[in-house]
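## retry 2 of 3
previous attempt timed out at serialization; input unchanged, resubmitting
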Amino acid sequence: MASPNSDPLADLARLEGVASAVMAARDAVDAVLRDRGRRQVTPEQQADALVRAARANAELGDLETSDQDGRPGRSGWEAGTLRLYVELVDCAALIRVSPLQAVARAHAVLARGLLPEDDLGRVRADPAAAERMASLGRLLTAPTTAPVIVVAAVAHAELITVSPFSIGNGIVGRAVEHMIMIAGDLDRPPVTVPELGHLQSGADYRRALDGYRSGAANGVREWLLHVAAAVTRGAELSPLRPAGTLRGGRRRG
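## retry succeeded, writing output
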């Protein structure tokens, strides 16, 4: 059992290469926000970013479930995911205070119309899943010196690994990652699209998740590096960046 003064997330942040990858991701987000505070973000720009993020998340959800009978297939998740991202900022206000409530709310909004009302936001009847979710709740409410990206990455992977709900776990996990980025003032107001970074990584996303699930230190490290790269790519794909612009203001072509 971890001691009351332990900080397991900070321990993960010290894995080789993680600190520098996280710093690069933070710099990429700061570049979008012009070093924070110097860029005015309109409601339309924020809405555009959230729609892009929702659609990328839904596409990943379709890829995860399209071959499973009785589950939404290609494009089947978009409506529910768009509903969820309308509430993403409100859920972000809860994610570090009452995380299990935020997760349950996210699932209920996402899966409305796809599951019976009694199953919305309800963890499946599995004592091991319930205990691991309780552990995640404690982790997200405990103080930590770990960077926001590390916290978000762990929550994302835990929700997919535990799969507490009968459907929609991947979409909820990715949404929770973004909630934590918002709550931690990394992406506030939300203008980046880390979900699109995950989508564009292709098979590397699933391989990185498998590494986390293995429990091996190197597998967890590779997952954290993957998430940092997705956050960096999500900043580069923000609607606030001019089309075709690369780091440092250079343009393609």
